[in-house]
Amino acid sequence: MSIHAESNTARRKNNYFDNIPVSRQHLLLFILIVLSYFFEQLDNNNFAFIAPAIVKNGFVTQAQIGTITGIYFLGMTLGGFLGGIISDLIGRRKTFLMSMLIFSSASILNGLTNSFEMFVFARAATGFGIFMMMVTSIAYISEMSPGESRGKWQSITAAGGFCAMPVIGIISRAIIPMSPDAYRIIFYLGGAGFITFLLGLKYLKESPRWLVAKGRVAEAEQVVKELSGHDIDLSEVAKNVPPKVNAWDQFIGMFSGKYMKRTSVLLLFGIPANICAFVLAVWIPTLAGMKGFTMEQSLSIGVAFMAGAPVGMFLFSFFSDKGGRKIPLAIGVMCTAVAAMVYAYVGNSYILTMVVAFILNAFVMGYGFVAMAYVPEHYPTQMRNTAVGAINGFQRLGVSFSQPFIPIIATTYGVKGLFIGIFVVYTFAAAVVFFLGQRTGGIPLEQIE
User: Is this prediction's pTM over 0.90?
Assistant: First the structure.
């Protein structure tokens, strides 16, 4: 025991957390991220269950659901762009905490309002806060994890947090049918994000990579020591930090030199894949209703769909770091395409539809968090969150523009036609990452740069 203690206190050079076992204190940080994800996903996924109810009670029309969803993703787009820039300027920690305040407050406002305009505004603000946190957390986990297991920790933290998806489904299934206004309770539950905000004020640490990029090496070494128990000398790492650039130059840098191809591939893959993923995440209960299922059955299908999320992320965590990251990513996307095609032909079998919906979202969220580990690995620390925010912002912008067309496509070509289209788009996305994507998994971030 004394030998182990001496090895931990001896000062040595190291690349942040690489090749250091995750300590109890480090694990507590990941648990805090899990809780943050959990409350964020309560807000992010509640509208899929609320939408059929507010159409039924006359608060909105079917067409307005597309408008609300489109505006929500515009809020996400803005949150992605600004969240990345802000977190590169003021730090991951402050941006993370700010985002929780925004989406928790906006969710409560959604429950309180009787105005359609205020409802749309609150949904936009919710999307803004949720995605500000999401892009910050993607880079944050990459920077706070050992290089050899970044993908594993991205998937494990997400799997724990995204248990909120079936939980909000079960709660919604129990509460929403109680009365025409019962959906408001679901929005009020979104205010639970204040819990992790208060915990984060005390326990959330700043990214040591961000601190080093800002010249605050001693503070970075202290964070690594507090989390790992090892006294790490980061002086050599600090010598290799590229010069500081402003936010606009960071954004332009994504489309310059060696980053041009990386950015192009991530957008060619990410935009179509995200459009498909959010058609599924937002519309599954509503599309089930269009197939003839009752509201209760549609909500149950939505619950089954949501339940697949943590299972998929947990299973994908075992091989997220394999094959240079891009191989499991491409395979996961292609499996999702096949599952979408199966869903197109299951017909109106209630039980079979629930089973396929579960499998479908297991693949969606499984590959999704492989992708979330994959994107930040393509950029250096000083532009990482700006780039992650921009990539995800462009993806959500694509989703936003696509949303109003979903009910039109489903009405014109039927639910089967819509899902065949999803298969085609997913197949294209899988081909892009498989043939053009870069291998990044298991390599120290500084070596990729």
Answer: no
pLDDT tens column, 33-70: 999 989 998 888 888 889 888 988 889 887 788 889 88
For tokens 């936010």, the residue is 247
What burial letters (b/e) apply to 27-41, b meaning 16+ CB within 10 Å? eebbebbbbbbbbbb
- 12 contacts 233 by C-beta, under 8 angstroms: yes
Tell the burial category of 180 from Cβ atoms under 10 Å away from its Cβ (0-12, 13-18, 19+): middle
Residue reference for tokens 């969710």: 107
Please state, in angstroms and as integers, the Cα–Cα distance from residue 380 to each residue in 124, 270, 369, 384, 385, following that order.
Answer: 30, 20, 20, 5, 9
* CA–CA separation, 44 and 67 (whole Å): 16
Closest CA to 42 of 99, 94, 104: 104
For the chain, domains (ranges, CATH) are: 20-448 (1.20.1250.20)
What per-residue confidence (pLDDT) applies to 231? 86
- 311-331 residue pLDDT tens: 898 888 888 888 889 999 999
